Amino acid sequence: MRQFKNTKNNTERSNISVNNYLKEVIRYPMVTVDEEVILTQKPLDK
User: Fold this and answer.
1) Dihedral through CA 20, CA 23, CA 27, CA 29, nearest 10?
2) Using an 8 Å Cβ cutoff, are 16 and 8 in contact?
3) Residues 5, 23: Cα–Cα separation, whole Å
4) Which pLDDT value is given to residue 15?
5) Are 31 and 39 in contact (CB under 8 A)?
6) What angle do CA 17, 13, 27 make, to 5 degrees?
């Protein structure tokens, strides 16, 4: 396996990806503690 070299180009692409992810995630409200508890108790739909 080749060793990964962290170049400026790789870092810039990673930053763009993270920024795009954060822009997308911020559109949705955060789950409250009570909602999180309820979600953890629900069975997963298959």
Assistant:
1) 100
2) no
3) 27
4) 87
5) yes
6) 15
pTM above 0.70, yes or no: no
- Spell out the per-residue pLDDT of the chain, length 46, in tens: 777 676 777 678 788 889 999 999 999 999 999 999 999 998 877 6
Report pLDDT for 7.
Answer: 72
For residue 24, give both structure tokens.
Answer: 């997308």
Structure tokens at 7: 């170049």
Phi, psi of 24 (to 5 degrees): -75, -45
CA–CA separation, 31 vs 45, rounded Å? 19
